[in-house]
Amino acid sequence: MTFAAAPGRKRLEGVTYCDAERVAEGLTLIAGSWGGQSVHLVDEDGTEVHEWQLPWPPGLGQDLSPHGTLIANGKVRDQHPFLSGLPFQGGAIAEFSWSGERLWEVRYSGHHHDGILLANGNVMVLGIARVPEEIAARVRGGIGEASEPMWVDTLVELTKGGEAVWEWIGHEHLDPEIDVIGPGAMDRSEWTHGNGIVELPDGDLLVSARQISTVLRISRSTGGITHRYGAATLAGQHSPWLTDAGTLLVFDNGFNRQDGWPPYSRLVEFDLATGEEVWEYTDPVRWEMFSALQSSAQRLENGNTLACEGLTGRVFEVTGSGELVWEYVNPHLVFRAGETSGIQSNRMFRARKYPRSRFSGSGAGAAEDRE
């Protein structure tokens, strides 16, 4: 289904379009990924109802816990042999109350991109390890010298006291013949480049691996990879999301897509049992929705889908039939982390929307007053 785009889309002005009758009720969590130290909640009108000031620049991924506290990844620089100075280096994950009190913090050198709160109260973070040379030489695809070091993702479960209790190391389970770097000109310095984690009800994990354009399902009991989603169709995706229907939703970035020019992004949903695509959304003018990096997708309670077009700072909501019902452009321009002049950006790693009931009892008076 095609529809007319909202006038003025992508301008820096907050909400550019709202269909009040069909937009999902709730508050949207946004944070810049370029720099700054703030995380914001905005309502359907784009009014900011709350702000957290963090002790460090927000990392790549923020979420709200079931009781309305903020779970935030942070950028805490150290001299890691691979990550040091890279824009996706993390280092910390913490929980903050509504008033901004830091309830706990875990630091882990080697953490990058996502970190999540697990059902058992521990945290799971993406880490990184060097691939043994004999395995790296067998990995297919990508560009770069075969003699250069190759890195791969790890998953590390940590207690809130910082004790590591479980670890998964990618090169022990990936297959160099199957888990091919690509499509397109992906650098061989990284085999997988994980950027998102989901914990499934049975404890298994979904990990979005951008470099191999695949979402991996990993058994918590064996560490084995039991399913590979999108290996033939995705192109550098982000943000795996488990829907209430038990399907997998991702933002398929498409910067290295092989099916023509210009590149375009899409939202795509997979059946977890069969791996088949069951739904997709692209902009009526395909290349009008495009973000080479970052970005997210989320299925909402009313069946709509929220998406964040990361590099433009654009957040929008569409119905199941592809009709636009809400659009917001992040108005917060910030300097790159650690800088006070130069280029400013409104780019975002992801956005998440929550019903106001999530904030009951959290001290979120501003949010509750708008019910």
Report on the architecture of this protein:
The protein is mainly β. It is globular, with a radius of gyration of 20 Å. The protein has a 5-stranded antiparallel beta sheet, with no helix packed on it. Strands 4-3-2-27 form a 4-stranded antiparallel beta sheet, with no helix packed on it. A 4-stranded antiparallel beta sheet has the order 5-6-7-8, with no helix packed on it. It is 2% helix and 38% strand. It has helices at 133-136, 365-368, and strands at 14-18, 27-31, 38-42, 48-53, 58-64, 70-75, 91-96, 102-107, 115-117, 123-130, 151-158, 164-169, 194-199, 205-209, 214-218, 225-229, 238-242, 247-252, 266-271, 277-281, 296-299, 305-309, 314-318, 324-329, 334-335, 344-345, 352-354. Mean pLDDT is 92; it is low at 1-8 and 365-371.
